[in-house]
Amino acid sequence: MSQQQRDALDAMLRSAPRSETRPSLEKQRSGFTAAVTRPAPEGVVTRSTVLGGQPTLELEPAEVPGRGRLLYLHGGGYVVGSPDTHAGLVGELARRAGLRALSVGYRLAPEHPFPAAVDDGLAAYRELLAAGTDPRDLVMAGDSAGGGLSIATLLLAREAGLPQPAAVVVFSPWADLTLAGGSIRSKEGADPIFTQADLRAYADLYVGAGDRAHPLASPVFADLTGLPPLLVQVGANEVLLDDAVRLAGRAGADGVEVTLEVGPGLPHVFQHHYERLDEASAALDRAARFLTAHLGADHPEPVH
Fold this sequence. Notes:
Blueprint: H1 3-14, H2 25-36, E1 44-51, E2 54-61, E3 69-73, H3 87-97, E4 100-104, H4 116-130, E5 138-143, H5 145-159, E6 167-171, H6 183-186, H7 196-207, E7 230-235, H8 241-253, E8 258-263, H9 278-294
Parallel strand pairs: 3-4, 3-5, 5-6, 6-7, 7-8
Antiparallel strand pairs: 1-2, 2-4
Helix pairs in contact: 3-9, 4-5
């Protein structure tokens, strides 16, 4: 990262300072939208559709060489965010991979607490398969809460006896709602976006008095056997660093082909800063290559 890029990134992240008092839910959602939203890249056509009963944004790059499809689940702590806020990130990943993408607007908490988001993820995945999508032509990705949700969706698909997709990529996954990772505390001073209190507030809204260690809420505690090849990307300067590291370790211990990338000095979901930050663009290139390299591969039979 050049000093100019680092200064620009620091200024951007400081533009939305962390507050000691928590704003209303409406202000959290509007503030997240204003801070994060980037439009779909030039040459990527977007259409509104419905998948699994939920509003979905379809993103199609100008050049799509094959039949591959990308199912994306956005971040936002299960409380904020939408396919529109992530149109830039998803469209850029789809463009670099040459894939048609579907970004699902799963139901948000607190109006729809756990496990509503996981149910919506599975419904979208199931509908794609029912419509004739070959799982060998299907890949998944997600960021932050959407990263944890992507893994949870595949766990639920495994339980339902459905075939797994060809591969999955997660950016800065939130994979432990019990907040047991050491970086939740050790990286708080370095993380320009989140504090432990922020994450606890999101977990309160999503799980409430429920079991925060449930494998579908916190996949670091799940048996990940049978999941497809996994790429985990995370920044070193974020409180969720250990979520990513432990998720990758759990996957490896359970026999999943897994690659972990830790970006020195980088913040939460740094991939959002593609074209502004060399590391972000390079990470998206690697993620795109990972997804496309696994398309068309044979999988083992579903694990029940």
